[in-house]
């Protein structure tokens, strides 16, 4: 399947799902008391039609005529996306409780009104959580092969920033200062630094260039870098001082190697051949080895090929509960720390947000990792 057909299919599925969500909401509120009269129903249809168009129109307008109006439209549309999802979750819960209106019939109206009120409250909480600064999550990682001289090396991992029109200069300014305050020896970004449109991010280059840790800045491409153009995204990251690892490894310090692969999910979507994990990790060798991979896939293979630590993202930890239940079907290792053979796998729940600037119930994270060698005291 060529790129045009793949994009057309993707767009059809997205718009079809988006439309079905609005129709479900309309169907469930159609007989509620506020919409009992004909004029009210006509206004409800008009309002939902406007809300349906708000996010797609805002995305297009932000590309064609960037400015405050486009930002406001896209932001409102993105918030509505999250609120619509939570409305569906709450209404579906009442449907299951009432047998889709067959049981508890006298209470159906009250249940649905309560579901909408709950969705509104959860949306407000999620918006506040999404707009807060990411949480610093501190972990001590035992890394096999790490030289004693590198004990205490501090790594900051950021992932899934999704910089663009919604998360821009002001948000990045706070993140840059937050990371600088952690005084890391090296910084890694495990993909999706951009949100798929490089012209929105290019003005932020000077801010990203402020990070200058002594052991360097290391990056891999996520799926959104592929959507923006993989080679162009790699060039952009390199111009901001990142060492972009594409199926390769390099030495950060004597006895410490960093390997990286292009996003494994995107490589599958684009039909790319090759064995990126094998290419990146190579035949192994002495010292410690860290693998950066946007998607938390093929961890068992990474462990058998000598990686002592694998850093990933992509899942956002589900971002808005309970969406993580669906994400976990494709990525069982959703967030947090996992042991895979002799390797530690850390899956970030993401530093920024994608789509809705919302999180429920946990905000984004910046991971501060302190490395210690095997044996002895941490």
Provide the fold topology.
Elements: H1 3-29, H2 38-64, H3 68-97, H4 108-131, E1 135-142, E2 154-158, H5 169-180, E3 186-190, H6 198-201, H7 205-208, E4 217-220, H8 223-228, H9 230-239, E5 242-244, E6 248-253, E7 256-261, H10 264-269, H11 276-281, E8 288-293, H12 299-304, E9 309-312, H13 324-330, E10 336-340, E11 343-347, E12 365-372
Parallel strand pairs: 1-12, 2-3, 3-4, 4-5, 7-8, 8-9, 9-11
Antiparallel strand pairs: 2-12, 6-7, 10-11
Strand content: 15-25%
The side-by-side strand order for the widest beta sheet comes to 1-12-2-3-4-5
CATH superfamily of the largest domain: Metallo-dependent phosphatases
CATH class division of the largest domain: Alpha Beta
Number of helical segments? 13
- Main beta sheet: strand number and arrangement? 6 strands, mixed
Count of separate structural domains: 2
Q: Separation of termini?
A: 51 Å
Q: Helix amount, in percent?
A: 40-55%
N to C succession of SSEs: HHHHEEHEHHEHHEEEHHEHEHEEE
Mean pLDDT across the residues is: 91
Sequence stretches where pLDDT stays below 50 over 5 or more residues: none
Q: Could you please say which CATH topology of the largest domain applies here?
A: Purple Acid Phosphatase, chain A, domain 2
Number of extended strands: 12
What shape does the CA trace take?
elongated
User: Any guess at the CATH architecture of the largest domain?
Assistant: 4-Layer Sandwich
Question: What Rg is obtained from the alpha carbons, in whole angstroms?
Answer: 23 Å
Backbone structural class: alpha/beta
